[in-house]
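agent> Task received from the user: take the single chain below, predict its 3D structure, and emit structure tokens. No templates, no multimer pairing.
agent> Plan: (1) validate residues, (2) run structure prediction, (3) serialize to tokens, (4) report one or two observations.
agent> Step 1 OK, no nonstandard residues flagged.
tool_call: predict_structure(input=
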Amino acid sequence: MRSCFCCPTGHPISPWRISMLTAAQPFAAKRRPPDRSPSGLRALGEGQVDIWRMQIPSSLPARMGAVLSTDEKERAARCSPQVARAFICARSALRRVLAGYVGQPAATLAFHIDEWGKPSLPGPARAIHFNLSHSGNEIVFAISRHIVGIDIERISPTPPYEIIPLVLARREQQCLARLPEKERAGFFYALWCRKEAVTKAIGRGLDIDLRQIDVSAGVDQGETKASLSIDLKAVHGAWHLHHIAIATGFAAAVACAEPNCSLAFREFHDQEALAV
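)
tool_result: status=success, residues=276
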């Protein structure tokens, strides 16, 4: 866990709890096949954010890692088997999905890494923004024509509450303290995921003080929407956050610079990994 808090809020009604309930139908029930443009590429409309999900299989398909670069293969070789399996799945799936948007073979995609470690595609493909997150056996990534950040966290029954003073704004701490004990873990991870989604979208890593990002808006109003907007002033601008229900026992959120973005849910399957 690096910095991913997604936090339900509230007293007497927590908008994050309600968001989780209203958005909690199974991911599969919400997903739809990607639209195709006349050129055969995956269509990505203005303001659209495609949310892709993949579950890490117990064993990798034989060709799953064939599209990885030499550097990626070397990185995977240095990892433990469990970490390597997650890394290979995540990078391979991301490459294959991006290939469908930019019309380029997955194995030939090159990534530019900026000074903060955030990857992007070079040249005309740079218009396609993406972000990836992984927790447990779940992998998610967001694809858009706008800058995006996504985060997913498996909800632990024993969250690291000791870091609260270092990462939560005062109002968020107050909201958390008002909740019954049984609701705090989900609230904590909900906040963390929203904060992490924003910082990943901004792309400045740990250079950002998470206490300056307050995602508890709407608590006092008992708001039931699964989204909110925050303004980080100065260079970071305004970001629009959406709670997303990926799987039971996980918190997840996506941040986008586009105020009127629409989310489309996609599922990445093993057989698709062998078709591109």
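agent> Step 4: summary for the user.
The domain at 5-273 is CATH 3.90.470.20 (Ribosomal Protein L22; Chain A).
agent> Done.
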